[in-house]
Amino acid sequence: MSNEVQWQEKVEQIYRGGGEKYHQKNAEKGKMFVRDRLKMLFDEGSWAEDGLFANSENEGLPADGVVTATGKINGQTVCVMANDSTVKAGSWGARTVEKIIRIQETAEKLEVPLLYLVDSAGARITDQIEMFPNRRGAGKIFYNQVKLSGKVPQICLLFGPSAAGGAYIPAFCDVVMMVDGNASMYLGSPRMAEMVIGEKVSLEEMGGAKMHCSTSGCGDVLVSSEEEAIEKAKQYLSYFPSNYKKKTEPQQPVPVPEFEKTLEEIVPKNQNAPFDMHELIARITDEGSFFEMKALFAKELITGFARINGKPVGLVANQPRQKGGVLFHDSADKAARFITLCDAYHIPLIFLADVPGFMIGTRVEKAGIIRHGAKMISAMSEATVPKISVIVRKAYGAGLYAMAGPAFEPDCCIALPTAQIAVMGPEAAVNAVYANKISELPPEERAAFIQEKRKEYQENIDIYRLASELIVDEIVPANKLRQELEDRLDLYSSKNQVFTDRKHPVYPV
Amino acid sequence: MKEVKTSMAGNVWKVQVTQGDQVTAGQEVVILESMKMEIPITAEEDGVVEELKVEEGSFVNEDDVLMTLK
Description:
The complex is a heterodimer.
Chain A: H1 3-15, H2 20-28, H3 34-41, E1 47-50, E2 66-73, E3 76-83, H4 94-110, E4 114-120, H5 128-131, H6 138-148, E5 154-163, H7 168-172, E6 175-179, E7 184-186, H8 190-196, H9 203-207, H10 209-216, E8 221-223, H11 226-237, H12 263-266, H13 277-282, E9 291-293, E10 301-308, E11 311-318, H14 329-344, E12 349-355, H15 362-366, H16 369-382, E13 387-396, H17 398-402, E14 412-415, E15 420-422, H18 426-440, H19 443-460, H20 463-468, E16 474-475, H21 481-491
Parallel strand pairs in A: 3-4, 4-5, 5-6, 5-7, 6-8, 11-12, 12-13, 13-14, 13-15, 14-16
Antiparallel strand pairs in A: 1-2, 2-3, 9-10, 10-11
Chain B: E1 2-5, E2 10-15, E3 22-23, E4 28-34, E5 37-42, E6 47-52, E7 59-60, E8 65-69
Antiparallel strand pairs in B: 1-8, 2-4, 2-7, 3-6, 4-5, 6-8
């Protein structure tokens, strides 16, 4: 047998992955074989692979259950780690861990994004001494993730389980896409939960994709198939540079489509009535460019990427249609994370404020709304990318602060002509200031008194008055907002600011 | 049994359905008043209103059941 034939045989055997029954089992769940996933992910379906022969001296452990590769996606070089769940359920042995660490080191050296295609049962307990506690054991993977965070984009596609320690891989990534029905994250399996704490619960309920994308906030994008996850990952990457030293390449600008109703027409005159902020976003961004992050989690605040005139922006927008657009602990947490993500990779931020303030009451105080709110304000303050604050209809109380109000050094604070800025809305303010007076009045005179005071209050917070006091920098008619943003983003593109020279703040997390 | 729950604490301002009404997923069934805002609450699933658990003017906390559907 010639050397090449011998090589060919060995390689082909490794390429086949684990036993046929595991391939079948995966196929039944709608899961692709790891090498088919990579073919779909990489341009021309090709990549350079290291450690193909890892553990090949041992029976039944092709590539030691993980493919580590470097290749191109839409012409951009990326590194990839992809578990092979047909090999011992994608569990981690010593060489699996070493391969993952090495691809992380490669991504760091090449300064390119790193994708984690996760489908793994976790540590191979039989190999624990070799893979768990040592200097280059599994802990190093997480250490490296932390070190890479903010240097190169880290993207997790969750195709199957990420169990116990493995659940921290998605947790340290910038974004987690989860395939509905197959993806899960959990520290202890339902079986362990029943044994150790006596809880009876299904995997889907405890750690399924829907739960994590809507309730825990550990997932960012819920998808219905692996193909969709891969498509979404490619789309996500298009908003990002390769690393923190670069800026994203602009794309061909796409105009805003024509709508039956103008921006001015969709924003209700009544400050208290709900409307859909998504409709406003569609009227200021390039058609089809919006990519929402955490769409199902804390829906009262919208976070997502879009393009304006071909260039990427990060949008942080209150959603009056959900919970009145009031800020909650979860929405503040969601915003803080999104803001740091945009800031790390030079993606300008636009805040679309339509906010009655932070939620009050026992529930949210117990949930720590103050420290979560502080976290959002901290992240927003520290962001040095171009920062534009748009007061759409209202910004009351600390809501003004959290949405990059004037004190937080936005490059500009723009208001629509109907916008109101105040400590609180007219109804609440009149009640707060005149509560005693109102109760002393004869009942038949109260309504007229309240009406008059509200009117006075409205006049006092009139937006032209605030502009006259230099509180807002510009008042822009609603239908001219897109053009205004386009112009200002272009003008701010040379912004170069360092927040401070200290080591880091004491994060209010 | 299907339930329609509140998304946040507030006062029930308008109940827009009555017992026996057919509702569809996404339909607005109750409007709360909270933080001076109108907060529409929608049914998450299709169904027929079986029992209303609240009336206009009552205080509800987050996750309270507003009505049951069958």
